[in-house]
């Protein structure tokens, strides 16, 4: 983000839209940004305030930002752009950004070219009847939809982490596809998945691999 925007987060004024519980907002704050969260949901806003009492939060949406014109260096969406209408949210982002400011959108996706991740995704698809490749296709579709609206630059950043098997299972079990299928259905899948993972990672530590897809556009300088 800093490289493509041409200026650092430290000292910048940032609005993180669709902030949810504040995971990305807190990371932006930790990089020295003066960040405000924008969140429409009652439940998410309540969790955000409990977790991050020192970070300001305002209620609103990307389609109608409750922010002053030309007041920000960055407007960010961390896996929240799909909640907006780009015909409204792009003009709103341009309005609140200063000249030379940046609109940054990103999504964290599984690296499906890694064999064990692809196999796990196929098991999830069979058990829950979902299309595991839909997320990346949706990201690509949203990126294509932005063509011509602003001059976006795209970057893909690959990253990984090692976590205990149970941490990995708790993480995937928090995803909406698991939550809507009921505890018994989900518990059966996670128990079986634990056995698969321990065969692949006998030391009990899973090497998760992700790809962050980043789209960033700058507003014209004055």
- Derived from helix and strand composition plus strand pairing, the structural class reads alpha/beta
Number of domains: 1
Overall pLDDT, averaged?
90
Low-confidence stretches: none
Give a short account of the largest sheet. 7 strands, mixed
Annotation keywords:
7 strands, Rossmann fold, 222 residues, seven-stranded mixed beta sheet, alpha/beta
Could you describe the 3D structure shown?
The chain is of the alpha/beta class. It has a single domain (2-218), classed as Vaccinia Virus protein VP39 (Rossmann fold, 3-Layer(aba) Sandwich). 41% of the residues lie in helices and 27% in strands. The chain has 9 helices and 7 strands. It has helices at residues 2-5, 23-30, 42-51, 86-96, 115-128, 134-145, 165-173, 176-179, 183-200; strands at residues 13-17, 34-38, 57-58, 72-78, 97-110, 153-164, 205-218. The protein has a 7-stranded mixed sheet with strand order 3-2-1-4-5-7-6, with helices on both faces. The two termini are 21 Å apart.
Summarize the structure.
By secondary structure, the chain is an alpha/beta fold. The protein contains 9 helices and 7 strands, in the order H-E-H-E-H-E-E-H-E-H-H-E-H-H-H-E. It has a single domain (2-218), classed as Rossmann fold.
Which helices and strands occur, and which strands form pairs?
Elements: H1 2-5, E1 13-17, H2 23-30, E2 34-38, H3 42-51, E3 57-58, E4 72-78, H4 86-96, E5 97-110, H5 115-128, H6 134-145, E6 153-164, H7 165-173, H8 176-179, H9 183-200, E7 205-218
Parallel strand pairs: 1-2, 1-4, 2-3, 4-5
Antiparallel strand pairs: 5-7, 6-7
């Amino acid at each position: 983000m800093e490289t493509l925007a041409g200026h650092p987060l430290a000292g910048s004024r940032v609005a993180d839209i669709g902030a949810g519980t504040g995971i990305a907002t807190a990371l932006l704050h930790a990089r020295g940004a003066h960040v405000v969260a924008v969140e429409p949901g009652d439940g998410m806003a309540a969790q955000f305030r409990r977790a991050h009492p020192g970070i300001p939060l305002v209620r609103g949406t990307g389609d109608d930002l409750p922010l002053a014109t030309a007041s920000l260096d960055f407007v960010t969406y961390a896996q929240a752009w799909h909640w907006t209408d780009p015909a409204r949210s792009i003009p709103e982002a341009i309005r609140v950004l200063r000249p030379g400011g940046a609109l940054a959108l990103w999504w964290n996706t599984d690296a499906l070219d890694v064999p064990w991740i692809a196999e796990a995704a196929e098991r999830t698809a069979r058990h829950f009847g979902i299309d595991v490749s839909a997320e990346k296709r949706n990201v690509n579709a949203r990126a294509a939809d932005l063509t011509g609206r602003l001059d976006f630059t795209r970057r893909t950043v690959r990253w990984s982490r090692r976590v205990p098997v149970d941490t990995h299972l708790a993480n995937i079990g928090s995803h909406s596809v698991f939550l809507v299928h009921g505890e018994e259905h989900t518990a059966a899948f996670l128990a079986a998945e634990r056995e698969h993972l321990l065969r692949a990672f006998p030391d009990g530590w899973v090497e998760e691999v992700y790809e962050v897809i980043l789209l960033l556009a700058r507003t014209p300088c004055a």
